[in-house]
Amino acid sequence: MLDIFKFKKDSQKEFVLDINKIPAHIAIIMDGNGRWAKKRKLPRSMGHKAGVETIRKIVKESKRLGVGYLTLYAFSTENWKRPKDELSTLMQLLVLYLKKEVDELNKNGVKINVLGDISKFPIECQNELKRAVKITSENVDINLNLALNYGGRDELVRAVKLIANDLEKQKIKNEDINEELISNYIYTKGMPDPDLIIRPSGEKRLSNFLLWQCAYSEFWYSDIAWPDFTKEDLQKAIFDYQNRDRRFGGIK
Ligand code: IPE
Ligand code: IPE
Ligand code: MG
Hints:
Its EC number is 2.5.1.-. This protein is an alpha/beta fold. Helices cover 40% and strands 17% of the residues.
């Protein structure tokens, strides 16, 4: 067993990750930034800033462990309800993150994809995102999906419209519509469904995340706020996942 797959759980027992059972796709709802800041009597923006640091660490560790796809829920279709100054902080942080990190991510073989409709984002944000996607498009080591202005329902509405359009143009026939076809009309086209969905911050809900794709995902919740989430927490989540019995409706 390679040493990189050996970890200490709860600083006592050593646990070993199975190199052959690393989830192909991990999706994370990066939640708890605001409460993290509040607890420290800091403005919410500081929580978001601290959350960006966690992104750096988790992308690095995911790549090291051989995760193929890492999807990070960064902004939902419902997050527009937040105060203007918080929205502007989030957009600014996104631009800063991309400006600072894209070259390094590119060097590390990270391919960036966007899930969601970013046309409502400030133009600078859209440009940085397009640049990041373009620069990293040939990379193959790990896919980093940034879910931005993403909503599972919105994604399905969009897919239905696209399918209706292709039916009208007779590109497809009614009989062609099946699960596989629908999977090809959503943002995660060509990607495996998430094996593991992680939500820190104590909430136990999906908040409109990957509704189609999560049919057989394993869930892992934790009270840790996203800014405090460490690579060891990721390892623990994967370890838990590896010890689950996934039956997909069948019998073992
Ligand atoms: C997650 O943290 C970041 C986004 C939703 C953009 P929150 O801002 O939701 O933090 P809490 O849930 O209020 O603590
Ligand atoms: C989900 O978190 C969205 C992101 C982390 C981007 P929220 O904080 O928006 O979810 P709710 O409101 O607690 O369900
Ligand atoms: Mg939240």
